[in-house]
Queue: 4 jobs
Job 1
Amino acid sequence: MEGLQRCFVLHSRPYSETSLILDVFSESHGRVSIMAKGARGKRSPLKGALQPFTPLLMKWSGRGEMRTLRHAEAIGLAIPLSGNALFSGFYLNEILSRVVEQETSYHQLFFDYVTALTELAQHANPEPALRRFELALLDSLGYGIDFLNCAGSGEPVDERMTYIFREQLGFVASLMKSNNLVFTGSDLMALSSRQFSTADQLKAAKRFTRLALKPYLGSKPLKSRELFSLRTRKLT
């Protein structure tokens, strides 16, 4: 069918007695708000399909901020996420909803998102997949940071040295050793390659992405983090 787009539902909320308002991430149009009329009805074929992490083909019509769903079909089973991986998937959906502009194409980021969900489903530790996706998101937002060269001298980063992060500038060589803004050269090389071979590199990557994403996310707490923290407390 002409006009079909590959999509994932990021979030949905009830509207009227039988409809849904969907926040959708599509391959070609980025984030789109869509009204799915009758989708919650007892006889609706869409009742179980419009769920997060299910790959869909969708078509919509209309203008303005709210479009109207014309067709939707699942093109595969939902990516199987459970436990920490499920909460991590909700986190990805939430930051996309908070950061990505509507009706703006993020073609590469769409595939980065699919890759991240697949990695979450396949690996027990969700942290590497989360950090790689956050870095991909920053790239898509135009947040260009040179991890491999000192912003002060232009010299290549030395894995044995330490560097302090300066917002809107980059990483500058520093004699400081313990500070939330200080990273080792080894940390920066791992961030550049998006491959984290040690627990320290993963911790440093999380520290950096939180710093870099903060201006985009704002001060409002992330619901997915609150839910994960609540789950962790219940398990302990």
Note: The chain has six helices and eight strands.
Job 2
Amino acid sequence: MSFVVQKKGLTLFDWINYILVALISLACIFPFLYVFSVSFTDPKVYVPLKFYLFPEKWSLESYRYILSTNSFINAFKSTLFITIVGTILNIIVSFTMAYGLTKRSLPGHKWIMGLVIFTLVFSAGIIPNYLLVKELGLLNSYWSMILPGLTNAWSLIVIKSFLESLPSELEDAAQIDGCSDLTAFFRIIVPLSMPAIATFTLFFAVGHWNAYFNALIYLSDSSKWTLQLLIKTLVIDSNSVAVAQAGASDESVVPQETIRMASIVLAMVPILIVYPFLQKHFAKGVMIGSVKG
């Protein structure tokens, strides 16, 4: 028996959907095009408040300027350190703790799971978190951006659900062969969890890279500002302190608007470069924990 699939013509509903999706896509794409265009526009031909879809005259002057400033380089180094170290620690703590929570024989298992779920529903708030970081002596330290958020309840629950979906027979066989729980975790669980690890690596890395609010309240030393906090100063503050601290001899050479747009593009590029390498694993791991059985 053969089945023939007949193609039907597009209905009015289909056309409306296509048009709406196209309009929404354009609304999302145009701001990126504008930022990209202004950042590559020659400062000599730049006209304020003029919409640029494509640069009238291409130039890398704004990028040369922003990359020559001490403030941007320091912010980039700070964000890079926080992202790399923070993501590695996030993955280690989240997966090891989630693996421990999959063991029903763990002493106090129900109490620990109850505390995890409690933090998923209730939060202490900004002031208690700030006081905690202050009492730990982490203010104006990169660790204030890393240690308080080593893991979170949502990540733990999703990772735990994923680990529980793995065949338990593999771990049982490893234990029969003499493997300890730690050996079985690194030799069996971790290789099987690469899609989940890649997915949460991307989640954690993007979260650290875009960290803004915690940097705003914990880092008062401008030399330790993150990239997003520096861009906030460039974009929002009219008399930009960051540009004034940049160390350039003549600020009037490059308009501040082109500097802002160049800094935004430079902040997006690293994530855009890393994402394609994780796309293969991300596509497999995005549905982790959604299906059990």
Note: The domain at 64-290 is CATH 1.10.3720.10 (MetI-like fold).
Job 3
Amino acid sequence: MVEIKTDAALEAMREAGRVVARALAAARDAAGAGVSLRELDEAARAVLTEAGARSPFLGYQPSFAPTPFPAVVCVSVNDAIVHGVPDGYRLRDGDLVSVDCGAELDGWTGDAAVSFIVGTPRPADLELVKATGEALDAGIAAATVGNRIGDISHAIGSVAAAARCGMPRDFGGHGIGRRMHEEPHVPNRGRPGRGFPLRHGLVLAIEPMLMAGGSDAYRTDTDGWTLRTADGSRAAHIEHTVAITEEGPRILTLP
């Protein structure tokens, strides 16, 4: 069932979104050569604790996962696409890092992700992050009353195709509200004019994941969580929680 949120609910989700933005900023600020992925998790966790927010990631165990997720952020490095488990790996100069974070505050949830480069960037990584951000921007621009889910999917997929990037077909965005994952599913490819109609009060997590090698193939690590590109190429993941409103798309996970 798809829940259409009231304007009061959108305001509450905006507050949860602010917490997500602060947690992502804290993780990014903590990142640097020699810093462990667990330290990024600790930085984000401190923000959630201070805000009185709960992590929808910590302890989450969907049907595909062999164990509950052990952290408040996913940290995916280099060829990892999404769902990376923060561990003792220490970041190195030039690493491409994607951090995904959620927060539940007063019964409402926000979810967002950022991608960035530690230290000296590779030009190809800068292009990949830029293309991923442009795919997200295109998807958000299509999130307007009167459009359909397929319009968002088509906008994202068109940018990825133009950049000659692959995307994992089985993963995409989703509805969000009282829970982190709600209906409808938001594929990162699709046909315009198809799918669920966009109405005022519908809230979606829009999240392109681009893979530089151009292939859509991926594999799952032995941890049962981390998805990696099958060809070893780099990946980037950028996400916002977005409300569809009569005034246009409203990003709820900005600072």
Note: The first strand starts at residue 73 and ends at 77.
Job 4
Amino acid sequence: MSVGSELIALHCIVRREVVRILRLWLQTLVPPAVSTALYFAIFGKLIGDRIGSVEGGASYLHFITPGLVMMCVITSSYGTASSSFFFVRFNRAVEEMLASPMRNRTILLGYVVGALVRSLLVGAIVVAIALALAPSLPLAHPWIAGLSVLLAATIFSLLGFINALYAKTLDDIGHVTHFVLTPLAYLGGVFYPIGLLKTPWQEIAQVNPLAHMIGAFRYGVLGTGAPGVGVSIAVMLVLTLGLSALALFLLGRGVGTRT
């Protein structure tokens, strides 16, 4: 399959995913915005005004903004990739892709890019809500902030794709969100600095990959909160490469597609 043909195939997958996201915007874009607006109103304003400044002298509203943005990005990217490819398997449309000259890397990249589009749209909406409540939100290191969001969204898009290969029902997809992603996000420092934890919880939190993602993004936005930002970026790069290799391996073995 030539490069031009691969690009056409990739464009078709991404276009289908983007059209689905925009057509179902009441389901794909509005719910995260509403729930995050409630977080900002309750925690950021009502409670935040009583807390005052936190780590690095930032207001509590500014402090929780990167964590809430990252939480929405990872849940959106995971949910999009997992549900999209699950329904492709469920409807047996995956057989058409496997019968075509389309390569596995094109299939994987198409669904990952589609999930990235939704997660970045959701992240932009959350940032807009935060700016409406706190117009003075800084952006200390734009490149670090952008890279951390892209890597985090890619990692959870890959995780969603891998889970879709194994999922038998929609419940198998939802269980990961409810019992894995949400607890890890809350324990990753969305609402509090990791440094407040006591031993051994602080050491355990350092093993949580979401703590690295939230910490790196918070450093990119506020300029504080991640003295080991290089380690956090390295962790995310390793996870991206490892999960990409695993997803391609599973596709090549026909897991969930031929068995």
Note: The chain has a mean pLDDT of 86.
